[in-house]
Every structure is written in C-alpha cells, then in structure tokens.
Amino acid sequence: MTTTIDYLDKAILTALDENARQSLAEIGKQVGLSGPAVGERMKTLRHKGVIDGFGVRLNMRAIGYSIEALVRIKPKSGQIRKVEKLIAEEPRFMACDRVTGEDCLIARLALRDIAELDDIMFPLHECADTNTSIVKSSLFEPRLPQINITR
C-alpha cells in the first residue's frame, strides 16, 4: 500500500533528513507552515507509517571504530537460522540484509582493528561461506530515496 505524499510532506521529510533535531518552528519556516501544523503533519506521517522513527548518525571513528567491512554470507545447507542467530548476537554487526543472488545475506561490521575480523568470522566459517570487503570510503551518507508527490 502506497501512502499519498504531497509537496509539504516531502519538504518536511527533506528538512528532517537534513537535521532531525530542528524545532518544529524551524522546519515550519523552511516549508511555509506554522510549527504546530508541522507537528500535526509529522504525527500523521508517523500514524501512516511513513516516518518509522528517529535515530542518530554516529561518527564511527570518534567512538573507536576505524574500520568497516561488508560481508557477503552464503550459509551451508540447513544452516541459515544458525547463521542469522550468530549475526544477530554479535554486536559488531551493524546491519544485515537478506538478499537475492548467490549470497543469502550481506552484513556490515564495525571494527576497532582488523585483527577483530578473525574472532568475529571464525564461528560463521563452520556454517557458512563468506567473502569480506573492507570499506575504504563512502561516496555519501544514507539519504532519502526519490519521493514522488501526489497532487
């Protein structure tokens, strides 16, 4: 089910993506609404499930994680649940997606040192084939997808 998004909703979502800590009044100035009107629209967007929550973007280096890695994971026959459990229980995995193709999962790791990689990956090697790539740099931060507005 697709939710209808108008140009004001899109403008509010864009403002939140740029800085979700802005006051409703500040967002209102940007989009041409009062602060309370922005609040009502945000409440409606949350109710419709368009806004799913709010979070924080961390500077990983500032908290000691100097390396990020992407891990493609292909569980051995009958081992998918065990692999998923191992990943879910290891806090250095920041994200994991089920994907199509040769691999079943793609996960993102935060590492303080490259030596940690062996400790994290060893339990997985008993039940999955893996392929790890170290992230050198990112072209851009996570961003909103294109939002089509309904007139």
Automatic annotation (TrEMBL):
Listed SMART domains: HTH_ASNC
An individual GO BP term: response to amino acid
This protein's GO CC annotations: cytosol
Record field: transmembrane: none
Entry keyword set: DNA-binding, Transcription, Transcription regulation
Stretches of the chain forming a coiled coil according to its record: none
Listed Pfam families: AsnC_trans_reg (PF01037), HTH_AsnC-type (PF13404)
Domain of life: Bacteria
Entry's Gene Ontology molecular function annotations: sequence-specific DNA binding
Alphabetical list of PANTHER family matching this protein: ASNC-FAMILY TRANSCRIPTIONAL REGULATORY PROTEIN (PTHR30154:SF51), LEUCINE-RESPONSIVE REGULATORY PROTEIN (PTHR30154)
Protein name: AsnC family transcriptional regulator
Organism: Alteromonas lipolytica
Lineage of the organism: Bacteria, Pseudomonadati, Pseudomonadota, Gammaproteobacteria, Alteromonadales
